[in-house]
Write a structure and sequence with these properties.
Strand order of the largest sheet: 1-4-5-8
Helix content: 40-55%
Number of strands: 10
Structural class: alpha+beta
Strand content: 5-15%
Mean pLDDT: 95
Distance between the termini: 49 Å
Order of helices and strands: HHHHHHEEEEEEEEHEEHHHH
Length: 386
């Protein structure tokens, strides 16, 4: 796959990261992506190979076993990974969000206990916020954590949890106090904890190469040292995790769209109609130009938001919401246009385009729906004029 038009804006280190992860995606993800989707296979062995490149702890500090990279580095990594398979890249983004949350908000003992295995991907992580009755209104969650001496007892159900059942660690947001966001705390639950179970693997439109299940907590008793941060800090921890998670999913949309555009160029170069290559038809060239323009604009916004998050700027959350909304909408539109340019071939699974369309569709929903992203942006715009 050729370099992107904005690779000249990357540092030498980021170019090296992009090259390494692109090679990994081309060798280990792309050749198997269609089969994994068809068979609903979660390739944990391949994920562990990625750990050798530092993909298991992208944002985790080096002293905890991670790569110690920035969000600006991360969006480059996840874009290139998603050129091979958006579903697997999307799971890796979530896994890394879990690792970052433990590294950022855990104490020294918690970091030592969980992060080496997460970074080596000897253990996988899942993020548990959404519930059957609390999706976009996450502060209304009902899962409870009742204090009982030196333990908490967690009871509730989490919905749409990526990696559930396969993951070893679950960062669970549960209510320890008053209604609303200030009554939520964060806990690390381990897969073998008594009372933890999982629903059946959901039958989904896309993201079939990773499992999605309910996480059921039926009186799961965990020691108090499994709590991340103080009581009542859970919602803030969850939202700060999502800022980075939104950038990861936005970057995965860029990678899927980039692959779809590249495939479209190759397909139109190989196909002829009315005695000429389809690639030479000006009407189709204009459509390709619009796809490339949208991709480049979305990438620029994602990278700007990543830099803002790295610098701790006050507008970072708003920019992350903008980037997630724009990149996921744009990425899906590019993939859909690519399918159209492939004609009937785009509808066949063997060409891989329809899989990209299905995978990118959910990016507009997860890590906060794009309607919620608009709400975040709007609040930032209007709070100074009220």
């Amino acid at each position: 796959m050729t370099a992107t038009m904005t690779d000249g804006l990357l540092s030498e280190e980021q170019l090296a990261l992009a090259g390494t992860t692109l090679d990994f995606a081309a060798e280990h993800l792309a050749p198997h992506a269609v089969a994994w989707d068809r068979d609903k296979h979660f390739p944990t062995d391949v994920l562990r190979k990625g750990a050798d490149l530092g993909l298991g702890g992208v944002y985790v500090r080096e002293s905890s076993g991670g790569s110690g990279l920035t969000r600006s580095d991360g969006v480059v990594i996840f874009e290139t990974l998603a050129t091979g398979c958006p579903s697997i890249a999307g799971y890796l983004s979530i896994h890394n969000m879990v690792g970052w949350m433990i590294d950022r908000y855990g104490d020294e003992a918690q970091r030592a206990r969980w992060l080496p295995a997460l970074c080596a991907m000897d253990a996988f992580g899942s993020y548990c916020l959404t519930e059957p009755g609390a999706g976009s209104d996450a502060a209304a969650l009902r899962t409870r954590a009742e204090r009982d001496g030196d333990h908490y007892v967690l009871t509730g159900v989490k919905q749409f949890i990526s990696g559930a059942g396969a993951s070893h660690l679950y960062v669970v947001m549960a209510r320890t106090g008053e209604p609303g966001p200030r009554g939520v705390s964060a806990f690390v639950v381990e897969r073998d904890d008594p009372g933890l179970s999982f629903g059946p693997n959901e039958t989904k439109m896309g993201w079939n190469a990773q499992p999605t299940r309910q996480v059921v907590l039926d009186g799961v008793r965990v020691p108090a040292d499994r709590r991340l941060g103080a009581e009542g800090d859970g919602f803030r921890i969850a939202m700060n995790g999502l800022n980075g998670g939104r950038l990861g999913i936005a970057a995965c949309s860029l990678g899927g769209a980039r692959s779809a555009l590249r495939r479209s160029l190759d397909h139109l170069a190989d196909r002829e109609a009315f005695g000429a290559r389809l690639l030479d038809a000006q009407a189709l060239q204009f459509r390709l130009a619009d796809m490339a323009t949208g991709l480049t604009a979305a990438r620029a916004l994602v990278r700007q938001a990543a830099e803002a998050l790295d610098q701790g700027l006050p507008q970072a959350a708003q920019l992350c919401a903008m980037a997630k909304r724009f990149a996921t909408d744009t990425g899906y539109a590019i993939a859909d246009e690519a399918l159209q340019l492939h004609g009937g071939y785009g509808y066949l699974s063997e060409y891989g385009i329809e899989k990209i369309v299905r995978d990118l569709r959910v990016h507009r929903i997860l890590e906060g729906t794009n309607e919620i992203m608009r709400l975040i942006v709007a609040r930032g715009l209007t709070e100074d004029v009220r």
